[in-house]
Specification:
This protein has 236 residues and is mainly alpha-helical. The protein has helices at residues 3-85, 91-172, 177-190, 211-218, and strands at residues 194-198, 201-202, 232-235.
Length: 236
Amino acid sequence: MTTEWHDVLDKLLALMRLDLKIERLERDLERAPADLKQREAAIAAIDDRGGKVSERVKLLKAQIMLRENERNTHLKKIEKLKAQASEVRSNKEFVAFRSEISNTQSEVDRLDGEMLKIMEVVELAEAKTLEYDAERAREVELADKAQAEIDDKLADVRAMREGLLKDRPALREGIPTEALQAYERAHEARGRGMAALEGAYCTGCGELQTRNDVYLVQNRARLVPCRACNRILFQS
């Protein structure tokens, strides 16, 4: 291989190393929002659990209200029965009123017992809601801290990436058009424009290369693209 082609290959390798640094920084940029999404998912999960408890509390309070209305109806009935019982003249009628009052009062007592049990469940559910609120507040605080850290990190990563991108045109200079186009096509299509040769295999795609191409790569006789992935091969 001539000194010129040695220089071309070295420039392509330098360009590849820069592109790999850019790629790593871009992965960092993609990964950072994913880390924050875990916090957001935790908050959403708490909201979901808390929402279900809140809905249950609403239903329980509605049941209490229904029983309260029914209880008031029975109490009014008792007052009416007592008034009617005070006006009866026979003992038989009085006993009948007393029996109906007693039965109605039993319904009131039953409703009181049910409402008490439901209110106990409501108290437990509302306490659980307060726990969810505290848990959510902690997660929101952690998410805010994570967001601040991510913003700082991303600012640094973006600055580094922009710096590397500014260096890229200088590395492209002096590379023959045909070689540069071959590199850029492979870089765009495969994510990397070059691949090391390991034995007779391309490490980029695993394709077996011909003996002649292996010889050309090992001796730097010319630029050799992989027959399968078109990455420019080099001897590691």
